[in-house]
Amino acid sequence: MATAALNWYGSLEFLGHSFRVVAPDLRGHGREGRRAPPFSVEGCADDLAGLIGELRLGRAIVVGYSMGGAIAQVLAKRHRDVVKGIVLCATAASFARRVKLRPAVRVAGKLGGTAARKWPQSADQFLRWRIARHDKKVQLQRQRADVLNGGLVARSTIAGAAVGVDEPATSYGGIFSTGGDPYVMDWALAERTMSDLAAFIEAGAELNAYDSSPWLPELEVPTAVLVTTGDNVVAPWRQEAMWALIPGARRYAVDAGHDAAVARPGVFLPVLRDACRELAQED
User: Fold this and answer.
1) Are 65 and 262 in contact (CB under 8 A)?
2) Strands, E assignment, the chain
3) pTM of the model
């Protein structure tokens, strides 16, 4: 559910010192979300290949985070000519926990996506309700954790995460920690609610059906894998299994959870930068 801005807000300035950085929204996400075709991993990969060509980037280093990691894998497979290397962060070759349910989940995703497009106002209301419910749940979890830790949980502001990457920040309720800045809180909420609920439903079904393990051993693209060792969304063992499938892939460990890009920029970003630099030096 993250737009490019929401996921990479604290990363762009830091990475921009070493690279030209382009952070596109995937189809269904962001301001043009409701005008996009139905979501698919292959469709997103083709979209990105077209964007790389349109911007004349040549052969780009493609960084894929979580769902973006699946899309980066498919992009490298389908459009090898525009990819110099891929960096796969907090992602896997397969995401389904119950493989037998894949066909049913895919059908449910198509039906849910169709319904969300048919009744867009109801879909928007449901999306806002679901986000508010999620945020309240995470806030309660955070408060309980604070109590268990004696209330001594360090939090940085989003400005600190964006400018000074030496200090860790925390995500709060799925929104960046803002030190109580209402403007940034409102911006983050708007970023999440401007996307298309239909795309989120379809993306969930697509990821459930995704499995690159049969063809990853044949992927001849320089690859770096950033394993988020504290991840409770994409289990570290899944990330390690993906890394083991890719010939010659470099492995980097990041001591953080699934929200490493926004919650632990001081830990995550230097590793990401170094991985990109090594791939940039590949012949």
Assistant:
1) no
2) 60-65, 83-89, 171-172, 175-176, 223-228, 250-254
3) 0.81
